[in-house]
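Write out this protein's structure.
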Amino acid sequence: MHIRNVYRDGIDFTQLSTAYLPLRNYLIETSKSHKTIDFKDQAAQRCLTEALLHRDFNLKIRLLPDRLCPPVPNRLNYVLWLQDIISASRYVEEHDSKSIVHGIDVGTGASAIFPLLACTLEKSWKFMVSEIDPYSFENANHNISANKLEDRIQIVRSNATSPILLPLYIDEDRRFDFSMCNPPFYSSLQDVAQSAEAKENGPNAVCTGAEVEMITSGGESAFVGKMVIESLSIRGRCRWYTSMLGKLSSAAEVIDILKSNSIDNYILTEFVQGQTRRWAVGWSYTDIRLPDSISRILNSNPTIAKYLPAHNTIQQPVLSVSRKSLYEMVSSVLSSLSHIHFHDDPHGRDPSDMEIDTEPRAGVGFLVFAQEDTWSRSARRRQKRLLGDSARPDLNLLSSVSAASAERPNSPADPTTQSFTVEFTWRQGRDRRLFDSFCSHVSGKVQ
């Protein structure tokens, strides 16, 4: 579960029922000190979702008995990941913290939970959302109005012939920061039945969705695959295209489609809630790169590892007497390189700090701007041949370089030294070889 997810430590149902009294009607006592609900009871599920949204987000929501009941912790995971994507994408840009972020929710559903959660967490976010089902469209509109968010969430009606990414076609001059989607999961009613039978002890929770929400031709991977193909012709209208997926095999199929269309700037994560695991894939046509903490599933098993994108974060262990000494050493190496620019990273954080909201610290790292390879031997030879040529290429590499404490003991050979890590994070660029070469050169000089 995401590190900022308020449900990481579970839900205290007794405490929750004091904040939302209707939930008391569904509490089941499993022990003297523990209560829960019957997750196979549709009404109990809906009441739990209402209670969490009421207590933790001050949202009033109407949930229909014949439409999907969204689990709040899982949906919150997706929104928090998008927060991380937006924050990292704006890493090197001069943005007012109150500048508007524009998002899209494809098939917002009867609850419209994604834009409601996102707009509650982020006051500067606005959405254009689509919905194909008239019943769900009407209820989503109700929930948006009930929470007085009509000025920030615009809902548009799609149909069977509409593009999946309809909002991107309504105003071709408008640019969006991200799209999100929870696509129909199954390919047919038979697929639904087979999935239920495959669960050895039966499903942990009842599924309340309608066919229009759960079934699409070819299943979820085909749906998102069409989204990828659509995005090829509208590329830059959206900075990050993303979608949640219910099966790892679906994520693998989508990644194959991305690769077959030469889209190498993609990201993959997973959302874990109890025994339920979901995945999310994102891709971008920009040269913005995201750190591994956002773009890759950390500590993944071999089955997942083969689908992950290449590393945008590289760590090099080093020994130094202090972080300050290491900082000065890195600064000296960078100063020796020609035709690069660097300065203190205004967002600098110790990479060992897990919290994304950790305060920036001076003297932790640098932002490095390079227009070309000027550090390798071949580059230096080429530079001599081109000496006097004032023409320079455009920016090709932007990397952050940070010094962090390492979780290893001091060197027994020299107890005055400590273990540190120099962390390189690719922030912008299209040439991965340039980033790898830069990391290798600086790491070698710092050793």
